[in-house]
Amino acid sequence: MATPVSFARVTPADRPPFTVAYERKGAGEPVVLLHGIGHHLQAWRPVCDILAASHEVISLDLPGFGASPALPDGSSYDLSSVVPLLIAAFAELGADRPHVVGNSLGGLLALELGRARAVRSVTALSPAGFWTPAERRYAFGVLRGMYAGAQALPHPVVETLARTALGRASLTGTIYAHPGRRTAEAVVAETRALREAPGFTPTLTAGRGVRFTADVPDLPVTIGWGSRDRLLLPRQGVRAKHTIPGARLVRLPGCGHVPMHDDPALVARVILDTVNQGVS
Fold it and tell me: Among 37, 123, 254, 268, which residue's beta carbon has the most beta carbons within 10 A?
């Protein structure tokens, strides 16, 4: 059974207050889960119970996504702004230097948190930021198309499409290798999350010049990449390994861009292997 979503009011010392939605379960060293652009914390539910058997698991809706409201007017969604906000959110939630796991945008944020030494370990699944200019333009074009489609389709049409495997593939086949395995309810919910995300456009705009080029030394880092990732192509994982020589690069066979649904057991094992290296 899914844990009810809660809300925390975060009041950084040098920035306006903001609110984040989160779920937490389990006990032990904290593991924080960060989703990708246009998604929501429910993306992690297939692995939460496995992780919560040995750790406290906190799934966040990033600001402007899922149930988390947009940042206050005038706030930036770029990395230099969002990373300190996440650190403040961790403190508000009582998660001191958690292990952090991220997918796509969340993977990029996880690596930036690792660079800031704000976490104990990093697991980044298909992280953004290791693209060439052409690959970034391709990925952003696909994302804009998904966003436009989610906005254009009336809710009853989405519900009808989600009832069939072919319809679920048309809605989510870009990010899952096995979209037909998703439930109709989950596909409807994530399509709505994409359509209603106030953080989507400003985050995409802020990401136009982003590339991750720094090492993350002296910290357990794993880069996982789905072999069937159609959004951020698997060759970007090799670049990530060259950029972060000490990282472990793991291939996720048969998985797409959001691998937690394609192979929950494999993804949970990769996360726990990394977390166990960073146990204090």
Answer: 123
